Amino acid sequence: MSTPSSSRISVLAFGAFGVGTSGYIVAGLLPALTGELHVSATAAAQLVTAFAIAYAVGSPLFAAVTGTWERRTLLVAALAVTAAGNLFAALAPGYGTLLLARVVTAIGAAVFTPAASAVAAQLTSPDRRGRAIALVFGGLTVALIFGVPLGSLISQHLGYRTAFALVAAFSLASALAVRMALPSVAAPPRVTLAERFAAGRDPRVLVMLAVTVLGCLAAFMVYTFVSPLLAATAGLHGTAVTVLLFCYGVGGAVGNFAGGRAADRWGSRAPLLVVTAAITVVMALLPIATATPIAAGVALFVWGMATWSFSPPVQHRLIELAPGHAGLVLSLNASAIYLGVGLSGVVGGAVLTSGGPLVLPEVAAALTLAALVLVGTAWGRVRAPREEVAVG
Questions:
Q1: Which residue numbers delimit the Major facilitator superfamily (MFS) profile domain (predicted)?
Q2: Terminal alpha carbon distance of the chain
Q3: In the chain, at which residue ranges do the beta strands (DSSP E only) sit?
Q4: Contact criterion met (CB below 8 Å) for 346 and 331
Q5: From residue 312, how far is each of 137, 333, 335 by CA, in Å?
């Protein structure tokens, strides 16, 4: 199949923006959620955990169940479910139903993100694959730049329900855009469930999934509780935190595209070593580096840039290891991402309760150091010949 125009892949990024905002928005809504629902910050953070666990379980499961669906139809359906979940969240009468709404939203996101990444990789030449994946993930970073801060701002004035309703509307618009702009993409031939999960038993794939879990756990245990962290280090609240979330998101966008280009130019391992080392240093210094508003802005920009340089080389490596099962390994990686995110609410909440917000970045630095050791010592070689990338 011929390489699509960048505008077609941009439509996938458009959808990823809606999905990403759906997943990350709780960090920006945390003060509004605690105030309107009358729950603690730790309890509100479990909305992140509910989303993440549903995503982690649902991604490989639904990748198998929908393996023979035409890809455009699958992407549209996934965005429609995401929209429905956000609308449910906007209308949910209480905390329990809001948790359920987050599960529904996660199912749509769990299907969309790995499928969109696999389609972008399948429609792109190997020498531009890292950039294509980075473009899709660019939608997630734009969600951090605009979606989360805007949600935070809206929640301060109109409540968290309005923020969820707007995300629902955008997700529905994304579904329509994908249906209109993306060409039909055939599903791969039917394979058994055992065949689908064979690639996941490769020790080299398992190493990369472990690296993903550690990296995402570290990043999101701090990001989810960034409001209490900035309150403790620089006395910042409200609009100031919104501005700093914007700085993080801009850094994330820069890092995402830099990570994709680096993977195309130098392969996966060297960029991943550099990025993971950088994240470790930034995390360790974060309590000191966020002592003033200006310093905090710079620190969050660098933190976002380092963190979001992480995913493109990881996904590039996974496709390199299992090009014939790209959809599967990317769905497993999506599960690993959200397993880390889900654990972040639990681990971060425990650290926040026992040690306070200043301890969060130090624990995160220890986790990324463990990921760095894994990348450095347990990489493994690619022994299989290159295959055509499969979207299922």
A1: 8-388
A2: 16
A3: none
A4: no
A5: 8, 11, 16
DSSP conformation letters of 143-187:
IIIIIHHHHHHHHHHH-HHHHHHHHHHHHHHHHHHHHHHSPP-PP
Here the tokens at position 282 are 């930034």
Interior CA angle at 318 toward 316 and 323, to 5°?
95
The pLDDT tens digits for 234-282 are 898 878 888 888 888 888 888 888 887 888 888 888 999 999 999 999 9
Residue 190 near residue 68 (C-beta atoms within 8 A) = yes
Q: How far apart are CA 258 and CA 247, in angstroms?
A: 17
Tokens of 319: 């496709």
In whole angstroms, give the CA distance from residue 293 to residue 287: 12
Rounded-to-integer distance, Cα 153 and Cα 250, Å: 17
Read off the pTM.
0.73
93 φ, ψ (degrees, to nearest 5): -75, -20
Evaluate if residue 328 carries a pLDDT over 70.
yes
Pick from 112, 119, 99: which is nearest to 143 by CA? 112
CA atoms of 272 and 312, how far apart (whole Å): 9
Torsion angle, alpha carbons of 44, 47, 53, 58, to 10: 180
